[in-house]
Write a structure and sequence with these properties.
The protein is an alpha/beta fold. Helices cover about 40% and strands about 10% of the residues. Helix 1 (about 35-45) crosses helix 4 and helix 4 (about 80-100) runs parallel beside helix 6 (about 130-140). The protein is globular. The N and C termini lie far apart (about 40 Å).
């Protein structure tokens, strides 16, 4: 599902310049980063290969072309990238059909953004078929648009997905707050010029300029996001 609505510029009495909130999906809104690794492990086991647990940090948060390509090269599995992508997407979709837990604070944050009419986009490296399935649980009404990893020329860690989301919303990336859980996603958002809230899921992320690190989405609300933005005179 992809849709575009006119951007609603948002400004509090204190002059916050927040225009939109752009949210990652896996590991940020839904607790599925572990699902991807489980499916990768199962698929490669069926091909006769055992994945090294240390590889998990290499593949987390990246596009399927990168993570699947790395695993093919690391294991020497006799399978093409296209064939493996189908198996991984099929396995993941079956997994989330059984159970799709939200991250703590995700439902409350989405409801708050909707209640205040903050333009919000879902920006994921996952393919469109997976995003559309997850949206049925998250609630498509919470998002003005969504950007999938197979819909942009370059996905994360490149800035393209976040630039596409900002363009679709008609907002300035510099006035967007991005919520991400991996270094790959953080790199994409920062390259696009956005302010980033990092909620690490698998690997640690350190604070930096225009990057705030929190322990959970339960620490993130609209006032918090407004506070990230520069003040307007």
């Amino acid at each position: 599902m992809t849709s575009t609505v006119p951007a609603l510029g948002t400004r509090t009495a204190e002059g916050s310049a927040l225009q939109a909130v752009l949210l990652d999906m896996d590991g940020t809104l839904v607790d599925t980063e572990g699902f991807w690794w489980d499916v990768e492990t199962e698929v490669f086991a069926s091909l006769g290969h055992t994945l090294d647990d240390s590889w998990r940090h290499v593949v987390v948060g990246g596009p399927m072309s990168r993570s699947a390509g790395f695993l093919i090269e690391a294991t020497g599995a006799d399978i093409t990238l296209a064939e493996l992508s189908v198996l991984l997407n099929d396995g993941f979709e079956e997994r989330i059909h059984r159970d799709l837990p939200l991250m703590p604070g995700a439902h409350r944050l989405l409801a708050e953004l909707s209640a205040h009419q903050i333009p919000t986009a879902l920006v994921s490296a996952s393919h469109r078929r997976i995003i559309d399935r997850v949206l049925t649980t998250l609630g498509p009404q919470h998002f003005a648009l969504s950007v999938a990893g197979d819909e942009v020329p370059r996905t994360k860690p490149h800035p393209d997905p976040y630039l596409a989301a900002a363009t679709g919303l008609g907002v300035d990336p510099v006035r967007c707050a991005v919520v991400e859980d991996t270094a790959t996603g953080v790199a994409a958002a920062e390259a696009a010029g956005c302010h980033v809230v990092a909620v690490p899921s698998v690997a640690p992320i350190t604070p930096a300029l225009r990057r705030t690190v929190v322990g959970s989405l339960e620490e993130v609300d609209l006032n918090f996001l407004h506070g990230l933005m520069p003040r307007m005179r």
